[in-house]
Design goal:
The protein is an alpha+beta fold and 224 residues long. 28% of the residues lie in helices and 29% in strands. The mean pLDDT is 88.
């Protein structure tokens, strides 16, 4: 596999991460769960653009790519959902959108193609057009001041908003943090203890299931 991945965080509260990928050869990319659904622009080597929405996943998904292909990905925060489409947030669903030159069409609204540096402007346009909504219960679920609601109510909001359970989301995010720390050189035993795994083998099994890789071979995992 030969890809160059660039990512950045965003000050926008509705965006989790913005990604940019350039494919340097043909290959198969293992897309790992990250607790987000995505808006993706993929540009083929001949310049043809495709825009699609990709829903939540709880296990790795293999995606083929070709040399010269490049993409921009906007990964949305957990509390954000599409106003008119529940399917995209249910499992790893894919929805392709119509592309017209330098614009794409989503639920009757024309929008500019996403860019790596100006994703925030596009998301603001989507919000203004009523295409995106936010669930305040989910937004505040992991803050120091969660919104007053029963545990069952929070779980319901989480499932309806993200397409996955709150537990699945927490497991994914914990595995991401474990990979992040292991890549930084921390010991497996220390990472497992700090993140609340039962033991190191428990952490290894979780990373293998979610990331599709063992802690000894995390080079291909970049969505952390």
């Amino acid at each position: 596999m030969a890809q160059k991945h660039t990512s950045r965080s965003s000050p926008h509260p509705w965006i989790d991460t913005v990604w940019q990928t350039v494919c340097l050869s043909d290959g198969i990319y293992k897309s790992t769960p990250d607790g987000s659904w995505d808006l993706i622009l993929s540009v083929a080597p001949d310049g043809r653009s495709a825009v699609f929405l990709s829903g939540q996943a709880t296990e790795p998904v293999e995606v083929p790519y070709v040399e010269g292909e490049h993409s921009v990905v906007i990964s949305f925060a957990a509390h954000v959902y599409l106003a008119h489409d529940r399917q995209v947030r249910t499992g790893a669903a894919i929805r392709f959108l119509d592309v017209r030159e330098d614009r794409f069409l989503l639920d009757g609204v024309e929008l500019p193609l996403p860019t790596f540096l100006d994703a925030e402007t596009l998301v603001d346009q989507m919000i203004a057009a009523g295409l995106l909504l936010s669930d305040d219960v989910v937004a505040r679920a992991f803050t120091e001041q969660p919104k007053a609601a029963s545990k069952r109510s929070v779980q319901g909001h989480f499932k309806n908003t993200t397409g996955i359970t709150q537990k699945d989301f927490q497991v994914i995010r914990r595995a991401q943090e474990a990979v992040r720390r292991l890549k930084a050189g921390q010991s497996g035993a220390a990472v497992a203890f700090d993140l609340g795994y039962t033991d190191q083998p428990h952490m290894i099994r979780s990373i293998k299931k979610i990331m599709g890789s063992l802690p000894s071979n995390l080079d291909a995992v970049h969505k952390i």
